[in-house]
Write a structure and sequence with these properties.
The protein contains 13 helices and 16 strands. By secondary structure, the chain is α/β, with parallel strands linked by helices. The longest helix has 11 residues. The mean pLDDT is 97.
Length: 345
């Protein structure tokens, strides 16, 4: 089968790989129909994720059709269309019983990281009963791809951890796919203001269409001052960091209000400074999280009820044999205006 393989920092290739097989009774083999590329995949390619070793098939998102299941799988059978969760969960270990599936003792974020992932024609899904979701009849499979990762990640790591509440003021630092997904899901909680901050005017224009009350280009170095002006020098109740670089976390520290929350969503590959000399008396909360996908069932129902429309996040479409072009498009989003790239497998 064809698969996109990580060969080491800054190296990848589309290769022929053996089709995966059942290795545990709880496994399923899924024939991929659609997948996508995540910002985390770019972090892997930069060498920021040491748990992902050369030779790994990348990808942790997508939809497909079950081809075969292990003897212990009871919720799915061959021919079922399924949504693949970016997090695999056994449902039985101590962390799973706390609904902290990202830290499952035999799962978590393993697809495209510790085991071969979804940017291929077929993928093996461990703990299939807990790690797959049935696709309702008539559901838009393109939109569902975005429920594998970015929507639950934005919802859980950004909106829920950030304690977004009715009437609150929110700043989302980063208007890429995760930041825009946070913008979409934050609106479930009716904040009074959602300020989107980015370096790309094109992405800020998209954010405005998606419901941002204000947008700021941080390229001039004055974003913190602008946020303080917008909030009457108070700052924001929730600052969501949606990039994963030191400058964006620094900005969140500068704009959070007394009693506010900084919700980190981005994947950080280098050291970030925490300015306790400025924050020690501010009553703030800083949260970190890897998505647990506990919100996926709710998001799936919301999407199928047409109360959530993430499909405008998809800007480019490719076939699997064009995946190297898809990576180039996604990695150079400032020039290509890419948000999410969809890959038909």
């Amino acid at each position: 089968m064809k698969a996109l393989v990580y060969l080491g920092p800054h190296q990848k290739a589309l290769e022929d790989r053996p089709k995966p097989v059942i290795t545990a009774a709880t496994d399923a083999i899924v024939k991929m129909t659609r997948t996508t590329i995540c910002g985390t995949d770019l972090h892997i390619l930069r060498g920021d994720v040491p748990t992902c070793t050369p030779g790994r098939i990348l990808g942790h998102e997508g939809v497909g059709i079950v081809e075969t299941v292990g003897s212990a799988v009871t919720a799915f059978k061959a021919g079922d269309p399924v949504l693949i969760s970016c997090v695999s969960a056994c449902g039985q270990c101590a962390n799973c019983r706390r609904q902290m599936y990202s830290h499952c003792s035999t799962g978590g974020w393993i697809l495209g990281n510790r085991i071969d992932g979804t940017q291929a024609e077929f993928v093996r899904i461990p703990h299939a009963d807990m790690s797959l979701y049935p696709i309702p009849a008539g559901a838009d499979e393109e939109a569902l791809v975005l429920l594998s990762d970015i929507l639950p990640t934005a919802m859980e790591c950004g909106v829920l951890n950030g304690r977004v509440q009715p009437g609150s003021t929110v700043a989302i630092v980063g208007s890429g796919p995760i930041g825009l997904a946070a913008l979409l899901t934050a609106q479930f909680y009716a904040p009074a203001e959602i300020i989107m901050i980015d370096l790309d005017d094109g992405r800020l224009a998209v954010a405005k269409r998606f419901g941002a009350t204000a947008t700021l280009n941080s390229g001039n170095g004055q974003a913190a001052d602008a946020v303080m002006q917008l909030t009457g020098q108070r700052g924001v109740d929730t600052a969501i960091e949606a990039v994963g670089v030191p400058a964006t976390f620094e900005l969140c520290q500068q704009i959070v209000a007394a009693g506010g929350t900084i919700a980190n969503v981005g994947v950080h590959g280098v050291k970030v400074d925490l300015h306790l000399e400025n924050l020690w008396d501010r009553n703030i909360t800083i949260t970190t999280r890897l998505v647990d996908t506990v919100s996926t069932p709710m998001l799936l129902k919301t999407l199928c009820a047409h109360q959530l429309d993430p499909k405008p996040l998809i800007t480019h479409r490719f076939k699997l044999d064009q995946i190297l072009d898809a990576y180039e498009t996604f990695a150079h989003a400032a020039e290509t205006h890419a948000l999410k790239v969809l890959i038909e497998a």
